[in-house]
Amino acid sequence: MADLENELKKRQNELDGQIFEILETFSDFESFKSMVLDYRNMKMGQSIDFSMDISVRKYEVKIESEDNGII
């Protein structure tokens, strides 16, 4: 188990996804418990949903040149 934990830490930037998050928490019971309880609350609709609070808009950057002002 220690070897697996070391490999996960070494490759932390390469690995992505929920399965790797679960594997990382196996050595820390409090982290695992927190993740399981968060998942349960989400499934039961008891978590805060921030999806309606995110707004994405186009942003234009205007760059000034020395010759003719704003591009």
Automatic annotation (TrEMBL):
InterPro entries: ARL2BP (IPR038849), BART_dom (IPR023379), BART_sf (IPR042541). Residues 3-43 form the BART domain. Gene3D superfamilies: ADP-ribosylation factor-like 2-binding protein, domain (1.20.1520.10). Belongs to the ARL2BP family. It comes from the Eukaryota. The lineage of its organism: Eukaryota, Metazoa, Ecdysozoa, Arthropoda, Hexapoda. It holds the Pfam family ARL2_Bind_BART. Keywords: Cell projection, Cilium, Cytoplasm, Cytoskeleton, Mitochondrion, Nucleus. It is found in: Cytoplasm, Cytoskeleton, Cilium basal body; Cytoplasm, Cytoskeleton, Microtubule organizing center, Centrosome; Cytoplasm; Nucleus. Plays a role as an effector of the ADP-ribosylation factor-like protein 2, ARL2. It comes from Cryptolaemus montrouzieri. GO terms for cellular component: centrosome; cilium; mitochondrial intermembrane space; nucleus. This is ADP-ribosylation factor-like protein 2-binding protein.
